[in-house]
Amino acid sequence: MNAIKDTLLMGPGPSNVRDSVANALTLPTIGHLDPRFIVIMDEVKAMLRSVFRTTNDLTIPISGTGSAGMEACFVNLIEPGDSVLVLENGVFGVRMADVAERLGAQVDVEEFEWGTPVVVDRAAKAIASKPYKIVAVVHAETSTGVRNSVEELAPLVVESGALYLVDAVTSLGGLPVDVDGWQADAVYSGTQKCLSCPPGLAPVTFSDRAREVLAARSRKVPNWYLDLSLLTSYWEGAKRSYHHTAPINMIYGLHQALSDLLDEGLQVSHDRHQEAHEYLVDQLKNLGLELFVDPAYRLPMLNAVTVPGGVDEAEIRQRLLSDHAIEIGAGLGPLAGKIWRIGLMGHTARRENVDRLVTALGALL
Amino acid sequence: MNAIKDTLLMGPGPSNVRDSVANALTLPTIGHLDPRFIVIMDEVKAMLRSVFRTTNDLTIPISGTGSAGMEACFVNLIEPGDSVLVLENGVFGVRMADVAERLGAQVDVEEFEWGTPVVVDRAAKAIASKPYKIVAVVHAETSTGVRNSVEELAPLVVESGALYLVDAVTSLGGLPVDVDGWQADAVYSGTQKCLSCPPGLAPVTFSDRAREVLAARSRKVPNWYLDLSLLTSYWEGAKRSYHHTAPINMIYGLHQALSDLLDEGLQVSHDRHQEAHEYLVDQLKNLGLELFVDPAYRLPMLNAVTVPGGVDEAEIRQRLLSDHAIEIGAGLGPLAGKIWRIGLMGHTARRENVDRLVTALGALL
After folding, report:
1. Looking at chain B, which terminus has fewer C-beta neighbours within 10 angstroms, N or C?
2. Among 3.90.1150.10, 3.30.457.10, 3.30.70.20, 3.40.50.300, what is the CATH number of B8-13+266-364?
């Protein structure tokens, strides 16, 4: 592994990790039921509540990457035959539908053009069209760089009586996430985006209403590993009991990353992401590069940039990585070959990193 | 997290981590599709094949802890209504049955007394009693300290036509695991036992026969995150495509842990575990302590020790941890209060650690 050198991670995640977080990963491993570890778990839960802006008791990191968070939210709430509506405008909406279908749900997908947001009027009609158990949407579509108006959709979902399931993988820490304000019922994220922790954990939060649905299931969750009713026996209460062995050192890293974020302040972090984004857009303009997404719903932390005609997009990415130690991302699905995805996530979202990328891009184009 | 100090981990896992592995965790995070990371993935697969003693192509670490490996093996092979036989003599056999039942399998459990092994004659009758799709057994029952004769059961399962599913969480690296010799079809392990890597990954290996069963499924795997037919698009082939974001830094740690183990040599590691175990048994005898399990099927890496009458077992464990920075484990289920579980796993399995524990135990008893 000697070939591993510092790389500026400006793709769709993972993002760069602060030294404080890297150092936390190497703290001595202790037992998963060690009283000192229980304290760390409780602090992680408390900090996650602050970052998610929620008072939900059930707010924990799942022992898997972001997609395990998605899986956890759906598998705990769905029983076969349940109706689910996915408001889809990118890869992660498609994935939600796939996850839910595999669990035996009746899934309706309301599709919106990739690169544009979920249109609230049309979503409202879909939400009202029948009684859904779950309405699901992605806050920050990492595949396209689009921000969906989770806050405008919220009252529509709440009024419909459905559970509101939100993907906050890429938004958490970089954009306001307001779980209680949205009255969201199940929200998941990942550590390797705007939290600037290596990939490996998926913070999730469940509302009391979602917990009641979980408690009232007619059959067991068909996934022992992700069954929240079992996980709570380890993560909650005065007496903790073994479920699975928690990924101790990764949780040290998350603890440090959350501390760093809250020390900086959520609003300061959001502003930093926005400023780095605006600076990037300006600098790219000087290179003649345009963003793929309309300013009204652009994400700050994931910038979809239109590949200019005649440019071999893959070669540019490869040379950025090999010659300049900078990673940016490719387009996915119908956007493959058409866009680059430039991440400004967490610790990476700083002006000096934008400068370094733009200089390198300028030399290559 | 300032309270985290070096602790001698002599419980049921996690075990102590070598400095080399701790240092590997802090290597710079790079992208999950970075060509340098693909090389590391390929090296991890190759080293896992050596450690599992298999030529199985599909040999990868699952992005979750050991129980996610169990979940992955069952969820990829089971379709609703499939018949599964679990040969059960401890917590992890019980867990296997629970996992399989949640997936809609018809599960038969052949129970054996906790603290004793699966009896081959009785297992043979159960295996032959009807055509099972899967027969599952735990190699090293961490809950009791018993070694099951996976090798003697192997021809019976093979002859029956069932898939042979083996839990090697606690055995891998500390006892001979011979996946190809056993003709085992699905085997999983964890990183935090005899591999001496922090918890967070679950190495699994699937035989070609198991892959054929997976490929011939009539419905999709009801777990997107653990679907091996999707994971292989990321872990195999000339062109890798994104599935989920791999836990990059944990995989650095596993890479280093496997390198260290293979540098030492599998046989040398097995011998070291056995020697540390025999030394522990001798030293405990001097304190008047006896092992709960018969020598014929004792595990070297997990020593179930009978708590002497009149001793408050929980207090001893707590004082070992608080006063001597040594963790040992409690009994589970029917063995709670009756045994201590003393681990000698991976880097921990050394004579000086036994001395430290025995001195501390002697002072407390």
Report:
1. C
2. 3.90.1150.10
Nearest Cα to Cα of residue A199 among B69, B39, B30, B66? B30
> Residue A250 is nearest to which of B13, B26, B200, comparing CB atoms?
B200
Q: Is A2 a residue whose pLDDT tops 80?
A: no
The CA-CA-CA angle for residues A32, A34, A37, to 5°, reads 70
Q: What is the topology classification, in CATH, of domain A19-262?
A: Aspartate Aminotransferase; domain 2 (3.40.640)
Per-residue pLDDT, A295: 97
Measured CA to CA, the distance from residue A182 to residue A166 in angstroms comes to 10
In chain A, what are the domain boundaries?
Answer: 8-14+265-364, 19-262
Convert the pLDDT of each residue in A294-312 to its tens digit: 999 999 999 999 999 999 9
Q: What is the pLDDT of residue B3?
A: 76
Q: What does the DSSP assignment read for B25-72?
A: HTSPP--TT-HHHHHHHHHHHHHHHHHHT---SEEEEESS-HHHHHHH
ipTM above 0.90, yes or no: yes
Residue A148 in contact with residue A123, Cβ under 8 Å? no
B40 contacts in A (CB within 8 Å)? 1, 4
Quick one: CA torsion of A229, A231, A233, A235, rounded to 10 degrees? -130
For residue A3, pLDDT beyond 90: no
Selected residues 216-275 of chain B with any CB under 8 Å from a CB in chain A: 220-225, 242-250, 252-253, 255-256
For residue B68, give the nearest of A34, A225, A321 by CB distance: A225
- Whether B225 sits inside 8 A of A68 (CB atoms) is yes
pLDDT score for B281? 98
Which residues of chain B are under the pLDDT cut of 50? none
Question: Does domain A8-14+265-364 sit in CATH 3.90.1150.10?
Answer: yes
Question: Does the distance separating the beta carbons of A198 and B29 come in below 8 Å?
Answer: yes
pTM for the whole structure: 0.98
- Which residue type is seen at A102? R
Strand B202-206 and strand B186-188: the pairing is antiparallel
Say if residue B14 is preceded by a cis peptide, omega within 30 of 0.
yes
Q: CATH topology of A8-14+265-364 equal to that of A19-262?
A: no
Quick check: A6 and B25 CB within 8 A? no
Query: Taking CB atoms and an 8 Å limit, are A199 and B247 in contact across chains?
Result: yes
